[in-house]
Structures
1.
Amino acid sequence: MPLPQPELPEPAHPEIDSMLSRKFGKEVANYFSGSPLNRVSFLRPDHAFLSLALKHPSASFVLFNKLEPLLASPSELFLAKFSDVQPILGDDPFATSEEELIAQYNSTSYIPQLVFLGLDEKKEGFQYKEHYKGQPYFALDVTPKLSVTEAAEKLIKDVEGRGLTFSKGRVHMSLAAQEAAIYAEARHLLDWNSRNPFCGQCGHPTMSVNAGFKRTCPPKDSAPAFASSDRPACATRTGISNLSFPRTDPTVIMAVVSADGKRILLGRNKRWPPHWMSTLAGFLEPAESVEEAVRREVWEESGIHLGRVVIHSTQPWPYPANLMIGAIGQAIPGGETVHLGHDAELEDAKWFEAEEVREALRVGTSGLGEDAGPEYKEGGLRLPPKTAIAHQLISAVVNGGFLSGAPMI
Amino acid sequence: MPLPQPELPEPAHPEIDSMLSRKFGKEVANYFSGSPLNRVSFLRPDHAFLSLALKHPSASFVLFNKLEPLLASPSELFLAKFSDVQPILGDDPFATSEEELIAQYNSTSYIPQLVFLGLDEKKEGFQYKEHYKGQPYFALDVTPKLSVTEAAEKLIKDVEGRGLTFSKGRVHMSLAAQEAAIYAEARHLLDWNSRNPFCGQCGHPTMSVNAGFKRTCPPKDSAPAFASSDRPACATRTGISNLSFPRTDPTVIMAVVSADGKRILLGRNKRWPPHWMSTLAGFLEPAESVEEAVRREVWEESGIHLGRVVIHSTQPWPYPANLMIGAIGQAIPGGETVHLGHDAELEDAKWFEAEEVREALRVGTSGLGEDAGPEYKEGGLRLPPKTAIAHQLISAVVNGGFLSGAPMI
């Protein structure tokens, strides 16, 4: 049986009849976007704020064990309280300023990764200064490790005793839209921190600052082996280096329309189930515009030459750190011959008539590991679920809804 | 006097009257995009291909000294020949396979960074297999350093003796459009390699592979101090890690239109010349869609609440590694009050009538360090040059050209 497909996030302010929405149609909000949290990013270095937020009774902690989130149900994250995590976090990790913590840095101390995710302003919570209020959300890595092994094992045993589970599997598409967006932010930040314990510039250990949104290369290390000398100079300490900030990898994903506007190109990977096809996709390269990356990837994977490219919508994809930029491109006349031999990533790529694709959107969509719906007939085209931006792009072309609202083909 | 502003790149296939271009208007191609090179990315691990390309008489080398490019004129890159760079590169850095080079890795050997940029298919050059031909382009770091100090100093003295210069200054906007795109690719890759000599995951030195487009963490190091033992396990060696591939940081930049559609918001940084204003901009954060990042940044920097956001076009920005994603957003009714106190990045942000902005686009655009044009009257609004995506966004709103072609306000 197909799993129920969660609803997509609401577009921001769908009720507003603005000039832009009249002209370009309703904004498409994709799964993993639509977060209810205000990140108040400029407050992240403010330990007075973070300390108050952390200890406020409304503070909520999303827990991860080896990047697996603790769920209250398939559609909901479990939210722990400060008292639950105090044995792991200590009384107040924000009691001293960031400068002091950097000055005291000791590479042999293990500090479990904590991330401030934002304030849910629609919920009752705490107030900070005039403008900032709501329920504070944090993410915490409770993987049993080094000095927190015992406290983390106790917490895990306790929550598992209450029937809760850390959700296995890599991709979580069963969460409700707003929960999925909170999970995506938490997972992306925890993963980035865990991949970068060392400085790419100088090779020394780095430390997490700015409530999980920055890593710094401290000038001194008070671990006994290093305490007598300063560390070598590092370029990330002078000026601003992008290596200090979280990495997000832009990828392009595109629906391709034929030159005569009557067909759409779909491709398939050999690992996919039979008859399952989707849009093409790939990583944007250094110094490419999105439009150029779309044309390059389509040519490399399918041999097709594109002209005009239009950007449709975007989707955060926290596996581990992607931004999917969805586009629609049209083949140039004479550039429609499929050739799979350049990059050889796809097992097949073919042109489909709009009617066949419309029918597949109606009866043949599902996640990769799931069965198609009850109306699906064996041998028919299968397509990704609506939580995938690929589905939205295909739908925008054959069913309309993007910009004018009328189908393109 | 204002410097001449170079022409923008041609949109791909402007002559084609496709359904997408009829519906959405002409594609906006921004400066640093529009590369004439086919990157044939799938050939980068193929040392037989790279070796032939490198030694072909048409092979062209863009040279950099500490990330500064060697220019033939303010609008043109100088292209060196293989014989010029052979004393630095050796007879053939691609003579052995990538696997062998990784197996022989020695962290004490200095190998000057070489990047294969692509084939210019419009120029006479060499042919590889059935589909790949053109003039091969490479970028090479000729900074005098370690084992190549002498050879690099000799080359630099030689080219400077011919009246050529490595161009100082951080941002190069005088290059002709296609030269700028080639430079951007080269600079982005050389910078990324130079920032990542160590592995962020395990702290050990990494080596450049895939013709400059990947860094790998070798399992052994044959340097005398390490030759007797394998290096510790590293997660980047098992499975695919994004840390092995070049980093590109997505940023959002946006023209903001008032709720009544009659005004446009512009902001200024205190470091800019008097009366100079531009669009707002900022980095996209982990697990944000572009549309959400636009709304967050506009609120954080100006206090304004946006509803509908439309993506306009994109621009590579190789300082050091950005992808600028240009958008247009509209304020919601009641959400237009400017408040600079949240993030406090801007010195000012104000609403402008369309007519004043149209006049400034006509008489008051220039690069940041340049004078405005001869028709500019002191005290009038100044705006960025057309090589900046900010200019294109402002122009799309007040002069039209985006999608329908009609001005929005």
Note: Chain A has two domains: 30-244, 249-398.
2.
Amino acid sequence: MIYSIATVCLSGTLRQKIEAISKAGFRGIEIFENDLITHNGSVHEIRSMLDDHGLEVVTYQPFRDFEGLPAPYRQKAFDRAERKFDLMEELGTDLLMVCSSVSPQALGGIQRAADDFHELGERAAKRNMRVAYEALGWGKYVYDYRDSWEIVRRANHKNVGLCLDTFHIFSRQTELDTMLNIPGDRIFLVQVADAPSLSMDHLSWSRHYRCFPGQGDLPIGQFVSNLHATGYDGPFSLEIFNDQFRAGSTEKTARDGYRSLVYANRAAEKSADTEALEIPSVNPPSEVQFIEFAVSDNEKLALTKLLSQLGFCHAATHKRKGVELWKQGNIHLVMNMEPDSFAQNFHQQHGVSVCAVGLTCTNVGDMVERAKKLEFSPVYGNPENDTHGIPAIYGPGQSLLYMVDDADQPPHWEREFKWHEDATQHAFLNKVDHVATTMSYEEMLHSVLLYRAMFSMKTMPTVSVSDPGGLVKSQALQTPDKGVSFTLNSTQASRTVSSRILDQYAGTGVNHIALSTKDIFATAEFMVKQQTETMPVTANYYDDLAARFTLSDEVIEKLKRYNILYDEDENGSFYQLYTSMFAGRFCFEIVQRNGYQGFGAANSQMRLTMQARELMS
Amino acid sequence: MIYSIATVCLSGTLRQKIEAISKAGFRGIEIFENDLITHNGSVHEIRSMLDDHGLEVVTYQPFRDFEGLPAPYRQKAFDRAERKFDLMEELGTDLLMVCSSVSPQALGGIQRAADDFHELGERAAKRNMRVAYEALGWGKYVYDYRDSWEIVRRANHKNVGLCLDTFHIFSRQTELDTMLNIPGDRIFLVQVADAPSLSMDHLSWSRHYRCFPGQGDLPIGQFVSNLHATGYDGPFSLEIFNDQFRAGSTEKTARDGYRSLVYANRAAEKSADTEALEIPSVNPPSEVQFIEFAVSDNEKLALTKLLSQLGFCHAATHKRKGVELWKQGNIHLVMNMEPDSFAQNFHQQHGVSVCAVGLTCTNVGDMVERAKKLEFSPVYGNPENDTHGIPAIYGPGQSLLYMVDDADQPPHWEREFKWHEDATQHAFLNKVDHVATTMSYEEMLHSVLLYRAMFSMKTMPTVSVSDPGGLVKSQALQTPDKGVSFTLNSTQASRTVSSRILDQYAGTGVNHIALSTKDIFATAEFMVKQQTETMPVTANYYDDLAARFTLSDEVIEKLKRYNILYDEDENGSFYQLYTSMFAGRFCFEIVQRNGYQGFGAANSQMRLTMQARELMS
């Protein structure tokens, strides 16, 4: 199949779009009419630009309100088509995409529409053109691909074929089995779009919320599998209307688009004629093995003081570099102060921050291969300064996601670090529960695709959380066995805690790191003894807790004493305790899960209000 | 009725909300549970704060998932209520708002619910408390106010009453006649919210898109009129969940909220016991009489050069001040360079810009009275520098909207200006067609309320326009006879033309002023002779025009020669011609309407793309 994208998906001028589309690796492009109309150059010049960038125009679109018209509108529609054929000749494409009519003048009737298309096919044939008919989800009469297929079948003309669009099919919840009865060569165009599950009118949903395959909730995989069964081998093209994409970076969006097609088409068989490439299947990572902080010497002192107060010890020191390992249970926190390292370059841009997360993986060779196919170019660090040789890809905010092979022997900790056998080992905290990162809306879609495509993570339903300065959208992702969890937060409101975090980090940044304990009260008691500053919780919160849950006064009193938040779901209970913000940027969360599956969304408003208070004071 | 607002409507901490609510003039407040829970002070302290600000807590809310529960949940729900009664006692309110259950455990049945409420009434009575029952639009069994009323009626307890919420009633499209059969004293609480017409699930619509009465599309007037008929005299309270409000200015939002209640309740009869005040009815303004520019001496030279190129002449000069009047047909453009004037203070903040618009009105005394009642405090200018004494209110971006009395004799132009009888009068342009202003989303809602409440303007459906840097939302408003029209544009994307305009003006600013002509081609020909720079239109646009409309090649050729845009609707044709941007800020649009009713939305993408190109070059 030819990987393609419609110009309407991207922001910018037509020239910027063409450059970004070519650079991202696409071979095909759909020219959206408005982009051509507003271009201040001739069609001939557009064609040269496309040729220079090695792009084939897979279709010119949309041609609207064609079929079913009575006189005199019918004749006018054919005249209009002839004009578009003129333009297409100049542009160098032979396929016009016709979407089902929404015209108030249009009349219904399958046969009437088929007759119109037969005549259009005759005219198209004379010009060596073809037309592809698409059922819009909100078409006046035709809004179901089974009906558009019946019209194409009856039009019975070799120059008239079908256009299938996943959004329109799924938004009307049409079954996919009929697809299997359509010969692949009668399908002229396939448009793929994903979308979040939203309950709203089809038109608004389509025009503002579409997203790339792998970023939404539609079962694209099922569609692609049926599509392969038809034998279709034409354009596989993105047609996404998305408010964030229209406002975002042209190049980044185009790159995400390309990888989303590779991901959507991952089951495709290898074929010399197409770009449909098999990508290796991999296991999801099993755990967060380490979290690396970019710190100055002074920040290291302050941060490790806090870590000591949480029971961490300085377990090892890098043999050659300015890098320390702080450890507790199975949690490895790396302090990187090595000059000229990735960490220190990151520090220059973002200040004290999490610059990398290491994930424990199996068969890292396959993961690297998969990353390459998905255009998440793996990096191995500077061999002068980063000796471990662990491959990584760029994650949120250009931090690194290391893929640490669990079969690597001896493990890098042994190879590279000198261990301090005399370090006091506490055992309050045992593993990383989840990492919460704040990012822009645009980067949220990018990250969802990355975590799904690379690490097989599943999304949980998004939640809106109220911050004193506005709403924050929160999206949790987890590996199937819940070994690795990330929560992503973003906001369009400029005065929220999330926005302040974004400003502070000059971009995306980690907001909190949740570490799990088996005994929250023992941990809290230790923290009190260590004089650890925790996020204060209001007294009113505990009064409300008493009303909401069946907790003894004694338990409530204990929760209150230690500033511990509490929640329950149908699976069990959940305890949360936050430290104060470190340098106004991030904090640690201590959690205890007794079966509970969520991330404490019910307590998020409390946290954000307290953090806002802390940031303002 | 007691004007009230729920804390959830506003951004900020509880303290900030209480201060803003009191300052805006409200007497009542609904304490939303989360605001109390996250407040870091005792309930007692909240009560003192409320007392200090003269605010009465009309209700504590929401109490969820109460009715219809089987054992053991039922008992737990009553325990929960008792805890809330404790809290309410301390807070100093006697009304608990209970919204209909969405609990999976809840069982249906009107009588079961009524029995639960009777028992709750008994408990409430013992504590001198009352409960108000509200049908949530997405309640599990009860989502219709007629059902919640039946439950209240059968509960048959003096301490159990009804809560009516306009959003829930209108979102389910429930009829309003049943309201007239409910005795006013059985209604304990009325919540008012407006919303735009959106087709989406009730919950998302309610949680993100509600707005103040007069800002949306719901028929609030009909509800209020029925409400008065019931004899209800309790709290009239705003409960708005709106993403922009949650992120916006606490004080400004509270002020808009208060005036929206005055506006919604405008038909109310005067009563000594309530704040329900009659506001004088007024006629809409008939025309834009003048537009005033804040300019430096140099900018005046450049701007009036452009005006000359459009056929304007320097018609008059202010007798005492540095103010010139430029005129053509019925269009008056005022250049204000007078030191220390409102215009020059505005200039210091915003640079060259439109600082005021004068509207021709009848009975300005009544309009001033209406403005006062609606808390749009009228201003009269500095008597030292602004001698005309014309009252004004603040419009978008703190510019002034003057209300010029058409009965004022002699008119201010005669009183204050020396006319140049020898000035050459052209007659290409005859009146102001509309003024387009760019503003933030938040200010858009504020402005819609202002234009509706003060000038009886009607909104047209909003449209989304594609700019190369993102989507722009456009809202047109018109007086009923179309004498005055404004279009408001806003965007959340930071790289759009609209955003650049906002940045340049350091806030809201006029983007273009549309002036109408009877003969666009003669005007264009004159402009060519005057070497007026116009916004270039692409050749591809004209090819597309030929396909879309039945226009002769000759007409197309003429349109193309002069860079004139064209559109049609069912009423007629429309011609548009834009000048280049003045100082990268605003431009003039010359329009000819032959019956056409819109504002050329079909050509907006063309304009924005061209303007983006101009701003980037």
Note: Residues 73-91 of chain B form the longest helix (19 residues).
